[in-house]
Amino acid sequence: MSGGSLLFLAIAGSNLNAVTITVAFILWGGAVAAIFVSFQTWLLKEAGADALPASAIYVALFNAAIGLGAMLGSVVLTFAGLPQLLLLAAISTLCGILAIAMLSEPAMNPKVAE
After folding, report:
1. Three-state SS at 103
2. What are the average pLDDT values for consecutive 10-residue runs of the chain, which has 114 residues?
3. Separation CA 45–CA 42 (nearest Å)
4. What values do phi and psi take at 109, rounded to 5?
């Protein structure tokens, strides 16, 4: 849903009204939030007793990714334009979702189960 919303905005961008754009961004935000929460849950299950440091590393990488995305997005926006930026964001999001889908399910850590 998140990549699809961005792809929709990239393809139909200038032909959309404010309500359609708002709905697309709400769908994108909801889907991305679900991905972030699900991935953090997976990480905490995998970490077991080391959940606190794993969570700190996750947050640090998450914030670094936001900063890197903003920096690269500003460069793409400057040189290519908004439709190309949205297309690149859609492709990047879909690649990320595919990478996450290929991860194995977290094993139940025996330290947590006891």
Report:
1. coil
2. 79 82 86 85 86 91 92 92 87 85 69 51
3. 5
4. -75, 125
Helices (H), 13-109: 18-47, 51-79, 82-101
Which token pair is 59?
Answer: 């947050």
CB within 8 Å of 54: residues ≥ 6 apart: 43, 44, 46, 47
Query: For residues 107 and 43, is the Cβ–Cβ distance under 8 A?
Result: no
Return d(Cα 110, Cα 30) in angstroms, integer: 33
- Report yes or no: 1 and 71 within 8 Å, Cβ to Cβ: no
Residue type, position 71, single letter: M
Distance CA(92)–CA(22), nearest Å, equals 21
